[in-house]
Amino acid sequence: MALSNVLEAPAAGFNFENSSRNAALQAGLEGQTPRPMKTGTTIAGVVFKDGVVLGADTRATSSEVVADKMCSKIHYMAPNIYCCGAGTAADTEKTTDLVASNLTIFSLNSGRKPRVVMAVNILQDLLYRYRGQIGASLILGGVDCTGSHLYTVGPYGSVDKKPYLAMGSGNLAAMGIMEDGFRPDLELDQAKQLVRSAIQAGILNDLGSGHNIDLCVITDRGVDYIRPYQESQYKDHRTNKYRFRQGTTPVLTDTVVPLELEVVEEKVQQMETS
Amino acid sequence: MNSRGLRSQLKDSVPVAGFCPQSQFGVQDSLRGGFSSVKNELLPSHPLELSEKNFRLNQDKMNFSTLRNIQGLHAPLKLQMEYQAARQIQRLPFLQSSNLALDTLRGSDDTIGFEDILNDPAQSEMMGEPHMMVEYKMGML
């Protein structure tokens, strides 16, 4: 349409108008583009006798700087399903929110509790549709009517179902601990210890993971979200109080300039009170 | 009314000034649309641009062909007739329609995706000029 007044409404969803401009800017400013906040992370999960234990560290980095020391990486999806997210922080947050909304609508429509496979399938379709541009690696765990399940979904939509999993930049260290310590049908305390040790290994050996360890225990009786399960040993102890009392800084001079305002126009409008 | 098949509606190139109105005579409007280049007009600037533009059409194509294989030709024909009917329930051209009937037919009335959150056309900052758009639709212009 060459007519200037006939408008084609923009399509809903992602808008790619600025992508060529962004590519040109990135070529121009090689090192100085803003970096997204990533959760270079260690996340792990294990299936035990009565359910699933999920664990995560709490550090979010923005290239070399720690952007958030207490970020929460275990996201809610349904009352019986929780999801740990690694990758770009905003992507994991938004994607899990979206899937959680879809699961809630499903529960309200059908009156049933959602199953973990349902969340996995929705996620897989969503992530495959965007060909990995949404950088979210997730570990989903939950207990439903068919039992306890643990799945991992990669950024391109690959799915794996295993009794123990670790993802994120610290996954090599965590996986080593898991492989060594996993047994089928663990007890609750053993499972919590195993996940704690796995995340601890990730925190010690990976720069992208650190600070506290969060755990989430899901059983058919309910969810126990323990935040934090273990606090970081490097706590911030301020040695001094840095508040100064009023009057510490002496006032040297005081200048008052009154603003001259003049009435330019006066308009009275009656309010309709009928 | 569009009676062409789905395949011919697929877009294989993305017009640069899809949103920005072009100036008179179809010349690229540098003031509003920025500098133009032939490369920008032929190749998509983002790997997802084309696949997202055609996503719904491709889904529909896939679903209809599966339905045809399972239930026979009558099923997609009847469904497409209902889709055509639902697509005609629209408000005036410059206003956003809710497309509720179309959503119900597609089954997307109980799912939330990025197209419901991002870039909602009802919240767009530009609106076409009402009189011109209605006249264009009526064929008077």
TrEMBL record, chain A:
Q: Which InterPro entries has this protein been placed in?
A: Ntn_hydrolases_N (IPR029055), Pept_T1A_subB (IPR000243), Proteasome_bsu_C (IPR024689), Proteasome_bsu_CS (IPR016050), Proteasome_sua/b (IPR001353), Proteasome_suB-type (IPR023333)
Species the sequence originates in: Cynoglossus semilaevis (Tongue sole)
Keyword Nucleus carried by entry: yes
* UniProt GO BP: proteolysis involved in protein catabolic process
Task: Please give the function described in this protein's UniProt entry.
Answer: Component of the proteasome, a multicatalytic proteinase complex which is characterized by its ability to cleave peptides with Arg, Phe, Tyr, Leu, and Glu adjacent to the leaving group at neutral or slightly basic pH. The proteasome has an ATP-dependent proteolytic activity.
The residues responsible for catalysis, as annotated, are T41 (nucleophile)
Oligomer status and interactors:
Component of the proteasome complex.
A GO-annotated cellular component: nucleus
What this protein is called in its record is: Proteasome subunit beta
Q: Which UniProt keywords apply?
A: Cytoplasm, Hydrolase, Nucleus, Protease, Proteasome, Threonine protease
